[in-house]
Amino acid sequence: MVQRRSRGYRYGRWHGGPDPLAPPYDLGDAVDEIGDSVLAGSGVREALRELMRRGMQGRRGLDELRRSVRDRLRQARNAGRMDGTLQEVRELLDKALTAERRELFPDPDDSARLAEAELDALPEDTAGAVRGLKDYSWRSDEARQAYEQIQDLLRREVLDSSFASMKNALENATPEDLQAVKDMVADLSNLLDAHNRGEDTDEQFRDFMDKHGQFFPENPENIDELIDQLARRAAAQERMMAGMSPEQRAELADLMAQTMQDMGLASEMAHLQDALRQARPDLPWGQRGQVPDGSQPLGMGDATTAVAELADLEALSNQLSQGYAGASLADVDEELLERALGRPAVDDLAALRQMERELERQGYLNRSDGKLELSPKAVRRLGATALRRVFAKLTATGRGEHDVADAGAAGELTGSSREWRFGDEQPLDVVRTVKNAVLRTAAEPRAEGERTVKIAVDDFEVVETERRTGAAVALLVDLSYSMALRGTWGAAKSTAMALHSLVTTRFPQDAIQIIGFSSTAQVLRPETLAELSVDTLQGTNLQHGLMLARRFLSHHRDAEPVVLIVTDGEPTAHLEDDGTPFFCWPPMPETIARTVAEVERVARTGATVNVFALDPDPGLVHFVHDMTQRAGGRVFQPDADRLGEYVVADYLRTRRGRRAR
């Protein structure tokens, strides 16, 4: 941001949105990684998803984030047992009964014996015993205090299971405090009813929070946040109950019903539960989910919190897995992620989202009708990257004799020039251009001291060059299924793209065509080749590939013809006279004969035919040696990871040899 002063300017931090001077987001490594996966046979969407799972330099991917969430899940499962409230009620009940019996035992009066009989007749289950003692006249102060502790504990735990932090807020609660809770629940029910009817509740929500905000320490900013918090906790309470044994669940449900009835909240809480279900029907209401299973007993409120945390972590793990139909990074809940793993995890997720957006914004990925594809820009990047890697290997192995100093030249200089015409790519003749401008403006009046010369379009002249004969390169790539089985498919595609990038960017006077062949042959554009899958049809129809190569060479009769063949098997298919493909294994003599005949036709064009055999099978080796002898070429047997190095080096060697002739 620039602020004007009386003299000069003062510079400070930009506050008007994204920094307009920030460098563009660097996607080079991301595009290369996606490209490697695509060339190896993955779809673009799968390649992008794999990159998101791995992450990038300095940023965790979805897999690492999910592993961290699963670790938190294991910790949460060990948080404790869910029967803590029942256990504490039983202990207080035993304490009350023991103290009362101790008080009654020395009393000889019949009333003491009747009281003892009443205690002996109590139901065996905890909830029944607590209910049976509701109207009992305690003689022991210690026993009365223990029973009152049960009542207070149940009130706080039951409310805490529905409203977080209520247990501590209602400790030693007065009748006025309990009335405030009843008022809050009533107002909350009215608010949710109005929301479920579709009414505008913004003002009603603000009034509710002004009046009852002390019961909601999470401080929701709107009614949707309030409903989300309450509904998740209510659903977690149901899952907590479902995770108990039938006996525990029955006892606790009975105690909860007694407590709600005593507080006058039974109908209000039931209505509130129904309203929350209506507002958030997508939550797993009533379903049995993961529950804590540790050794430490938990109260109802803490157990509900633990179950809610487990549900949130399980949902977050599922979101990070991206393993469901229509999955998107937008599905990942940032609030859950921050609660589970902290702010750095949210930053890692934001970096992944930015990378995904930038891949489309900067034109590397195209999305059409729900399908994700590599753009021509991305394909050019893949070719350039593949070529750079090939040259790195050539240099490292000492085989890099690639002289490209004259890359892009159109021919030798003739010493003359001519006027520039639209579309000319020849270099400008600067001297003649300036001379033309000076002569044109010599008669024009000039201001005193003016020395500038204005150059117009008509002044430009370009240097004339002789047309240099280029090369016409036909690269034939085996697309048969055996290429994938042997793990050479990705290397073949990468090699083809590297060679295409080399020819089109550094030797534009040359022409190149990529031809894929399996049961039949087809001409491939780089955009098609990048995402092409191997052909599951049987057959290695080299004859058809050579026919297409010969047709391509016929369109470049002034160029030096070069045919490069990458294959891992001898021919097993050919075209019949009517054009239909025929396959047979082992190869029929007719297939071999038709392929050899096509080799000889290619050889008569003067083409150099070099073969890169990717399988040491004796049949293949014998066939390709016979073929190259007929066409005056050579046979190479590189490892798959050095295929690009061999093909590019051979092309460069062929060009260098042609210039030497």
Can you characterise this structure?
It is a single chain. The chain folds into 4 domains: 27-78 and 314-374, no CATH class; 83-310, no CATH class; 412-466, no CATH class; 471-656, 3-Layer(aba) Sandwich (Rossmann fold). It has a 6-stranded mixed β-sheet, sandwiched between helices. α6 (126-132) packs parallel to α12 (246-263), α11 (223-242) crosses α14 (300-321) and α15 packs across α16. It is an alpha/beta fold and 661 residues long. It is built from 25 helices and 16 strands.
Task: Output the keywords.
single chain; 661 residues; alpha/beta; six-stranded mixed β-sheet; two-stranded antiparallel sheet; 16 strands; elongated
Based on CA atoms alone, the radius of gyration comes out at 41 Å
Q: The biggest beta sheet, please? A: 6 strands, mixed
Mean pLDDT, to the nearest integer, reads 81
Say how many strands there are: 16
Helicity, as a percent range: 40-55%
Unreliable parts: 399-410
Number of helices: 25
Secondary-structure content class: alpha/beta
Domain module count: 4
> How is the largest sheet built, in terms of strand order?
11-10-9-12-15-16
Distance between the termini: 64 Å
Beta-strand share of residues? 5-15%
The general outline is elongated
